[in-house]
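Onboarding guide, step 5: your first structure request.
Type a short instruction followed by the sequence, for example:

Predict the 3D structure of this protein.
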Amino acid sequence: INGDGTILAIGDAATNRGGFPMRDLKLPPPRPGEVQLWDTKMGALKRTFPSSHVAVRQLAFSSNARRLAVWTAIYFKGHVELLDLDSGRLVGAFDDRASGSVGSILPWLWLNQDASRFITAYFKGKNIEIRNTADGKLVRKITTPDKAYLTGFACSSDGRMIASGVGGSVNQVVIWFAED
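The system replies with structure tokens like these:
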């Protein structure tokens, strides 16, 4: 749901193929690889976006709700698509290199306020990656200590700080700064 609660984005994995209840309405589930935007006040479908991949696993709005990052997967390889919600166009598509660390299908995805950067990480993965949305280039890679792995993930609203649960040889919450 976007910041003011007026738009709901759902992908095929989020609905578990059974529909999505909203205000006592049962919404039809998206087709595989599809993302739907719903007006939460009207209960009406606003727009549907097809994906080039099979399974939508994670969605993240920019704070102004003008862009939507979509993490999709095919055969455990992650892919991030950036959609412009005003025009309905795909404005960026990037392979998610962090997924190669574990091949997890449980990703975390975050898009900063102006949609200039996205952050990906994976449950039981070792890496948090910050990338530019303009070209997909790596801005910063944060790696957990040896024999440790990620168990949780959250970002401050401005994207300057990242909190992660770290398990394995270390059981703690770590605060990382997005910029070195």
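Each response can be followed by summary notes, for example: Helices lie at 12-15.
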